Amino acid sequence: QVQLVESGGGSVQAGGSLRLSCAASTRTFGSYGMGWFRQAPGKEREFVAAISASGGRTYYTDSVKGRFTISRDNAKNTVYLQMNSLKPEDTAVYYCAATRKVYGSSIRYEYNYWGQGTQVTVSS
C-alpha cells in the first residue's frame, strides 16, 4: 500500500499561483508514474497532468498547458504541481495518484493509489 498526502491548496485570486505537493510513503516511489486529477462539484474527476517514473516525460490536459507544470523529486518521494495564471474554472479538489505504469497515464482507472485531495479555490 502507498499512502499519498497532498498539501498546498488554498484560495487565490484569478491570475495568481499555487504550488501543490504530494508526499508518498513508499520506498519505491521512483517506480511509479504519478498524476494529478481534479473534481469540481457536480462534475466527474478529470485528468490534469502526469509524469513518468523517471520524470523524463510529462503530459497535460489542453486546458492547463502553458500554465501548470508537474515535476517530481524522487529523493524526497514528492510530486509537485505548479499552477500559474489560475482561472476560476480551475476551482476543484485536486487529487494526487500513483500508477504502476512507469510512463504515467491520463486514465483514471489505471491509477492504483489516491490521496485524499486538497481544495483549490480561484476567485474572480
Task: Describe what this molecule looks like in 3D.
- By secondary structure, this protein is mostly beta strands.
- It contains no helices and 11 strands.
- The strands form 2 sheets. Strands 2, 4, 5, 6, 9, 10 and 11 form a 7-stranded mixed beta sheet that branches. Strands 1-3-8-7 form a 4-stranded antiparallel beta sheet, with no helix packed on it.
- It is globular and about 40 Å long.
- It starts with a strand and ends with a strand.
Write the layout of secondary structure elements.
Layout: E1 4-7, E2 10-13, E3 18-24, E4 33-39, E5 46-51, E6 58-60, E7 68-73, E8 78-83, E9 92-99, E10 113-114, E11 118-123
Keywords for this entry:
124 residues; mainly beta; four-stranded antiparallel beta sheet; 48% strand
Number of helices: 0
Number of strands: 11
| Whole-angstrom Rg | 13 Å
Whole-number mean pLDDT: 97
Distance between the termini: 40 Å
Indicate the overall shape. Answer: globular
Main sheet characteristics: 7 strands, mixed
What would you call the structural class?
mainly beta
